[in-house]
Write the structure tokens for this entry.
Amino acid sequence: KKLLRSKSKLPPGPTGLPILGNLHQLGKFLHRSLHKLSLEHGPVMLLRLGVVPVVVFSSKEAAKEVLKIHDLETCTRPKMVAAGLLTYNFKDIGFTKYGEDWREMKKLVGLELFSPKKQKSYRYIKEEESDLLVKKLSNHAQTETSVDLGKTLFSFTAGIIFRLAFGHNFHECDFIDMDRVEELVIESETNVGALAFTDFFPTGLGWLIDRISGQHSKMHTGFTKLSNLLQHVINDHLKAEQPEDHLDLVSVMLDMINKPTKSDSFKITSDHLKGVMSDVFLAGVNAGVITMIWAMTELTRHPRVMKKLQEEIRATYTRLHPPAPLLLPRLTMSDIEIQGYNIPKNTMIEINTYAIGRDPKIWTSPEEFIPERFLNTSINYKGQHFELLPFGSGRRSCPGMALGITIIERCLLNLLYFFNWILPKGMTIEDIDMEELGSINIAKKVPLELVPTLHQ
Ligand code: HEM
């Protein structure tokens, strides 16, 4: 068997501080650095981040082997400091290890948030939020003023998801406004995507560097803000009577705290409640917003396609700009063999969907936006086709897929059915900035501002 060996050095970070700056900064640009490295070194790379071995897979075949054939052996998550902090010591779904707690929580949230029955009962919320969106854009269309689509789409998506999960309408909230919520989502995502030295260097050294560099206090400040917000939402639930027929996830979980469940060894605690709320906060909102912004950006740059937008809308945008370019990291639970390489137990695994989406062996003109390429194929986004994995695949794939797709479809249809879109005065298609930024999610760096006009 071929021995896995280190084929590449870590790329230098963008700051002038070669050691202190690198790891923290690298988190922000990891997908791009890894894409470049994989073009040079091939689709299987072993990186040594400090003392931790991380294997990065950048091919469709490898993704299939990990996520389908070896799904079970790789479906736990590594314990990273920032994720632990934000999820109340891994009491959530996304970052917790594989096991009974994960299974029970996933079942509960599946039933109380994602089930078709729940979604149906919450239809009116999606309709109200859509009306609000169309009204807001119509005002801009009448006054011929541009809208910051990032802010508008965040407000729409967060409006729906927080009302579904938290029972809270942040448009009418007296303790926090939508702009602050957006800042907090971005800050929390940045923190969870940043790589801490504590994760990769032996205890003591990493701990010290994170303290000297300010990373530790940055994470804790961000966490305190998030924690205060979640506690505020919970306190409001405790104060107010909840309607019996329309219990949101927070109400249901509050009612279950410390009560016996069917499982002998699992009990819901208040940390589980906050952990799941963190998940919704971190995973639920921004991925959808980012998908829509990139969709609108590409469509604006390609007026021909904007005109032709049709049912393939679902598969189209997530290839070039997968909202989560490395999915979430996996960890091997036993020794396995992937692509002919021996991968030992406890190796961190990253599936580089960013590189797979741009792989010239799979896609003709990979960097081009050609949505028609999906017309005569059976490729879908649901995790069965390993060249397109916007929601991941296997046991740890996204449980919010159906909800995410409904929101994106509803929103894009509203944007494109009622309005035509033009660039602000003085701007041309060439001026649209395509720079990416982000860590677990890759957002567009420069906000997309467009002027809606009413379609007669
Ligand atoms: C367009 C919208 C969305 C996209 C593109 C998206 C994408 C993803 C991806 C790529 C993963 C990692 C999968 C893996 O590691 O294999 C994930 C996991 C997850 N997502 Fe989503 N997501 C979206 C919407 C949502 C929503 C609306 C929610 C909840 C309200 C949600 C909750 C989660 C959770 C809890 C996980 C962790 C699952 C686990 O580890 O078992 N997502 N998502």
